[in-house]
Amino acid sequence: MEIKAKEVKLGNELSEKEAYQLFFMVFGNGVSKDILAQWSNQGIRFSPDPETSMILVQHEGGPCGVLAAIQAFVLKHLLFCPDDLVKAAQSTPQNTTPRRLSKNQYVASNNFAAFTENAKARALVKSMGEILFLCGNNKRAVIATLSSIGDGVEESEDSLTDVIIAQALEGLSIESASDLHKVLRVETYTTPASAYKRLEAIIPVFQSRMGALLFLISALLSRGLDCVQADRDDPSLPLVTAPFGHASQEIVNLLLCGQAVPNVFDGRMDLGGGMFLKGVSTNVEVGFLTLLESLNFCKVGQNLKCPKWPIWVVGSESHYTVLFALDTAVQDENELEARESQIRKAFDAQDQSGGGGFISVEGFHQVLRETNIRLPSEKLDSLCGSGFIVWSEFWQVILDLDKSLGGLKDSTGQMGQKIFDLYHFNGIAKSDLNGSQFSSGGETPMQRPRLTKLRVSVPPRWTPEEFMADVAVLPSGSAGAQPSGKDTEVAKPEPSQHAPLVDCIRTRWPRAVCNWVGDPPSIV
């Protein structure tokens, strides 16, 4: 009992002041009933369709940022860390265990339908607990649940759980801070084991229609409301954005890196006069890519672009989805790619334009020193003539500068092509009209999320002309990074296909060419 008392404070109600601060932080003033309904009607549930059974299904617009972040961590645990799940439940099939090819390379199974309900449930619990402790600086996790449920779910038989939750949710709506104060109950845990145990016991509550909102509240309280506001550049704006109720970048960053910072670049940007813009300051387990970078509205830093595991939340103007690979080697860099990353990182460190892609002459000389680039005097004078250096112009010079001078021009032409597979999940359920997916009545199509497999080829274009050329996929036999097994069957050039997701992929792998079968992947 003494140990339990140290691990958890049970049954604390949110104070009236905290409830009002929380409500207006999330929704602001004048929030519409439609937005509140979106966030009060989205559970955290897996798809019932066997082919997409590891995807969390989204039925309402708005909470997709929360679901996508949880989905990314679920994939991490299912694909790359199943040993943790196996230790807890020996029922996980062996054919879902990733193959370890080297010290740093893992290749996960593509048999998505083989994961048991028990394995998925445990992956969900592990993911939620990991995110909450990440928000709590690895010191605590605050779990928000409904006061009307209490310990009834934990103590009831499975057959009674749905009845208890249905009774608790009957007529329940959150339309004001006062409503939030009445219905919330919060519990603080200081050890992962105790938090996982509690999450496992009350997972039906998070699967209910209030699940996404309760998890967001749990993450905010784990971080601490004052800390959340301190993370932000403009704490007066609501975290759920008008007019459509989408999760802000601050919410997504909170769930991915533990801080509610509003920007996606690395570190922070000094605006002068003691003012800073805050970005992501740490390496992350799962990353983030955005269509907005391809449109030059922002610049995603290396912390989010190159996570520990090859899994990314993908942002568009109105939705969040998930992109992932089964082979961790997709993030490996060859010599020239590593050199490109080094130069770009040094340039970005001097870029105070908010990702605009230009730096001062003084900053440029610092970049040349750090990267050991020796430009001919005429090239140096040309680049510095306007008083600032634009990345695109500098990059063209680097592409045409020999390796011996610190550039990327490879006269040997030995760069190998990279070919690999990516998978894309869109959790919004859509009707599937394929014949086998009808209900028993034969008339109603099944609602299922969308899963797309993409073959990605990154050709070795290291001159300006090659960079701009639209080169088709080369035979897989010329690849620098070969997939294994029957996936190597691509043996003839194919025309590249395009969708907005491809633009996102190219922010991570410039010059990538993508192909898929069937409908194009959707990020909306």
TrEMBL record:
- Kindly state which reaction or reactions the protein catalyses: Thiol-dependent hydrolysis of ester, thioester, amide, peptide and isopeptide bonds formed by the C-terminal Gly of ubiquitin (a 76-residue protein attached to proteins as an intracellular targeting signal)
Reported EC number(s) for this entry are 3.4.19.12
Q: Please state which protein family the record places this protein in.
A: Belongs to the MINDY deubiquitinase family. FAM188 subfamily.
Keyword list, A-Z: Ubl conjugation pathway
Could you say which enzyme class this protein belongs to?
hydrolase
Name of the protein:
ubiquitinyl hydrolase 1
Species whose genome carries this gene: Gossypium armourianum
Q: Which InterPro entries match?
A: EF-hand-dom_pair (IPR011992), MINDY-3/4_CD (IPR025257), MINY3/4 (IPR039785)
Looking up Pfam families in the UniProt record yields: MINDY-3_4_CD
Top-level taxonomy = Eukaryota, Viridiplantae, Streptophyta, Embryophyta, Tracheophyta
Signal peptide location: none
- Keyword presence, Cell membrane: no
Could you provide one GO biological process annotation from this protein's UniProt record? protein K48-linked deubiquitination
Region (Disordered) residue spans: 476-497
